[in-house]
Write a structure and sequence with these properties.
This protein is of the alpha/beta class and about 210 residues long. It has a single domain, classed as Alpha-Beta Barrel (TIM Barrel), CATH 3.20.20. Helices cover about 45% and strands about 15% of the residues. The protein has 9 helices and 9 strands. The protein has a 6-stranded parallel β-sheet with strand order 5-4-3-2-1-9, sandwiched between helices. A 3-stranded parallel β-sheet has the order 6-7-8, covered by helices on one side. Strand 2, helix 3 and strand 3 form a beta-alpha-beta unit. The longest helix is centred in the last third of the chain and has 19 residues. The protein is globular. The relative contact order is 0.15. The model has no long low-confidence stretch (mean pLDDT about 95).
Length: about 210
């Protein structure tokens, strides 16, 4: 695994995770380039995208020194090994599977499994999770995040994913969310580079407003 910025440093600098579901290796660098230019520091390529390892390897080679690059929809320990071989450094899953978290940590990668309850959250942390992806956030409004925050360790990174956009991020930020996974509101297959950049600009502007930056 190549060296690069830490998960915490990336989230503190720009708490947005670009979820590039459906991206092709041909699109990977142009899209990653513009996201980096707009201030994004974390990119994940879901493994149900076309040739995801090729895209991960390409983005990691081009931007691994300045961005945290990894994979989403990681469902097996074998997937974790393949991501590590492609120089991905972040493992994101829609669910909490102890074997996936343990495999990520054994490979020296960051692990952010998907959880929906405090029980899942504490179990994931016990396995070594570096952050908790609250998914799908459409059924976890800010009041749910606030309730989880009341019992979870203060230093745990809580990242709502699903239905997050520039209009609702501030409400989650107010209840101490640490980052946001942005999927189709940023990128989807067939979206032009100009439109991806426009979406990126709107999201970054929203972050700067609620952070007071």
């Amino acid at each position: 695994m190549s060296d690069g910025p830490t998960l915490n440093a990336c989230l503190e600098k720009m708490p947005l995770i670009a979820i590039l579901r459906g991206i092709t290796p041909e699109e990977a660098i142009p899209v990653a380039d513009l996201l980096f230019e707009e201030g994004f520091t974390i990119v994940e390529v879901p493994l149900n995208s076309p040739d995801p390892m090729d895209s991960i390897a390409a983005i990691a080679k081009a931007h691994g020194n300045g961005m945290l690059v990894g994979a989403g929809t990681v469902l097996t320990a074998e997937d974790v090994k393949a991501v590590a071989a492609a120089n991905g450094r972040l493992i994101v899953a829609p669910n909490f599977d102890p074997e996936v978290v343990k495999a990520a940590k054994a490979a020296g990668l960051y692990a952010t499994p998907g959880i929906m309850t405090p029980s899942e959250g504490f179990a994931a942390l016990k396995c070594g999770a570096d952050g908790l992806k609250v998914f799908p956030a459409e059924v976890a409004p800010p009041k749910v995040i606030k309730a989880m925050r009341a019992v979870l360790p203060k230093d745990v990174k809580v990242i709502p994913v699903g239905g997050i956009n520039e209009n609702n991020m501030a409400d989650y930020w107010e209840v101490n969310a640490n980052g946001f996974g942005i999927g189709s509101n940023l990128y989807k297959s067939g979206k032009s580079l100009d439109d991806v950049r426009a979406s990126a600009k709107a999201l970054v502007a929203a972050v700067k407003q609620f952070k007071g930056a």
